[in-house]
Amino acid sequence: MQNTMQHAYRLSAAAVRRRYAEQRPETLQALDGLRQADVAVYTGTYDSVQNVLKALGVPHTLDPKRLRQRIVFANCAGSYPAGRLKELEAHVRAGALLVTSDWALSRLVQRAFPGMVRRATKSTGDEVVGVEPTMDGLWSEVVVLGADPQWWLEGSSEPIEVLDEAKVCVEASSHECLAKYGAPAVAVSFPWGCGRVFHVMSHFWLKRTRAGGRRHGEPGAAFLRDGMRLGDEAIRAAAKASGVDPNALSFATVQSAATSTELVARLVAS
Asked: For the segment 223-239, what is each residue's pLDDT rounded down to a tens digit?
């Protein structure tokens, strides 16, 4: 499955760039204008958002010694140095965007940015859940009615409890997470000083998906067409650029990788 997802991410990155060229040229221009000095990634134990950035062709600095980048990713990890929490809080307060995943919720976000969100009491199993993006969220343009994106949750992923409903924006939610864990939020964002924090449950580099409905078993090209609104020529171009046949992957696999890739691209290009 891991090789399958790697192929899906390669295809998705090419498809996202193609979509932007046709539908959001200003976003592609912003994406291509990024420099290594703009984006930082703190490597973690479990997530690898740098792989998504690499597939998109976004230059970035890994584990910077001096934090100056205006966009900072902190991968899911078992722990974070206390000094880094203070540094990140001050950096966001001064205007940076901080993007975090999974265990960063309890180990970083709720400690450095108190009163906004926290880890809910239950932890997840190793499972895949359907996700419903908000109509005006970062995923709103790649939604297929009747075929919700399938989001992989690591064993012991941390459900998100929103504390400040006036300030926290729920970017995506899951009825399955609500039923199982009493916490529907899958992705949230909130302002902090002059900057912003964006946190997602589980990982940006997803390891598997599932065929949750009839459409999810269709060929991957169907999602490129119906989810990303790409025509046949654009689909062929994405396949050629990535070296991946979209029909060799399932709708669900391409949808999961493309949803994650789209999110990362929109965050860094915003």
From this structure: 999 989 999 999 999 99
CATH number where 131 lies? 3.40.50.880
Query: Strands 195-200 and 97-101: what pairing?
Result: parallel
- How many domains does the chain contain in total? 1
pLDDT digits (tens, 9 = 90+) for 149-206: 777 887 888 999 999 999 999 998 999 899 999 999 999 999 999 999 999 998 888 7
Report the candidate in 78, 79, 98 with the shortest Cα–Cα distance to residue 88.
98
Which residues on neighbouring strands pair with residue 185, listed in sequence order?
160, 173
CA distances from 167 to 60, 101, 106, 138, 139 (A): 29, 19, 19, 17, 20
Residues 6+ apart with CB under 8 A from 30: 269, 270
Sign of the Cα torsion 140, 226, 268, 253 reads positive
Residue-range definition of the domain harbouring residue 102: 2-269
